[in-house]
Amino acid sequence: MSPDDSPEGQGSTRARRKIREGVVVSDRMDATVVVAVVDRVHHPRYSKTVQRTKHLYVHDAGNEAHAGDKVRVMETRPLSKTKRWRVIEILERAR
Question: CATH code at 33?
Answer without folding.
Answer: 2.40.50.140
